UniProtKB/TrEMBL annotation:
Signal sequence bounds: none
Provenance organism: Pelagicoccus mobilis
Protein known as: DUF1989 domain-containing protein
Record InterPro entries: DUF1989, UAAP2
Residue ranges annotated for the DUF1989 domain, each copy included: 17-184
Pfam families with a match to the protein in the record: DUF1989
Length: 211
């Protein structure tokens, strides 16, 4: 469901442009509003969330899908944790659909899906590992779970398969959510060049936070 925000980026307490292929992590405090802005359009922002005080309690795709009774996220969707807690709620969305199933690209999946020579290409799983290590020495690859792909279009076929399709986002579209507890947000601004999730041209996104 398309819902515009009334918040003005000029009044934000935090703004950060995340370059194509880069990772970013930040604590979003309970009650703060967090926006991911697709600056140039058709850019997938792979995202994970963790309870800032107990990172074992982290975003759960299966619990979120069950809570929504829907595969895709949009305004009104509640992002649930593995402990059954509400991490964030999407309050504004000008894209209309965000993927919960496609997962994060890795060097291994690039090899399996595309070609052996793609193995050395940078991938979201690498970015997630770097982002977790930057945030805390206690977090690492064991803490990477099924992620949200904001702005990414992954239709489910009638046979139950997944396809990576052209994005439905555009320059200036965004998704905005309110934190229901203190959360760690971790983004891999996807570097994928082998499928159309980034229109074969990864571009920056911006993270914006309001009190």
């Amino acid at each position: 469901m398309l819902t515009e925000s009334t918040l003005d980026p000029a009044n934000a307490v935090y703004r950060k442009v995340i370059k194509a292929g880069d990772h970013w992590s930040h604590v979003i405090k309970k009650g703060q509003t967090f926006r991911i802005l697709d600056l140039e359009g058709n850019q997938a922002a792979d995202t994970l969330f963790y309870n800032a005080h107990d990172p074992v309690d982290r975003y759960s795709a299966s619990d979120t899908i069950r809570c929504q009774q829907a595969l895709y996220l949009t305004s009104g969707s509640k992002l649930m944790s593995s402990g059954g807690n509400e991490l964030l709620e999407i309050t504004a969305d000008t894209c209309g659909r965000h993927d919960t199933l496609g997962g994060a690209c890795s060097r291994e999946s690039n090899t399996m899906r595309y070609a052996i020579e793609k193995e050395n290409m940078h991938a979201c799983r690498d970015s997630f590992i770097c982002g977790l290590h930057d945030h805390s020495d206690d977090l690492g690859k064991r803490d990477i779970t099924c992620n949200i792909n904001f702005f990414m279009n992954v239709p489910v076929t009638p046979e139950g398969g997944l396809t990576f399709a052209d994005g439905i986002s555009a320059p200036g579209r965004y998704v905005e959510m309110v934190a229901k507890m203190d959360v760690i947000a971790l983004i891999s601004n996807c570097p994928q060049l082998n499928n159309p999730c980034n229109a074969y041209n990864p571009t920056p996104v911006e993270a914006i936070i309001w009190d």
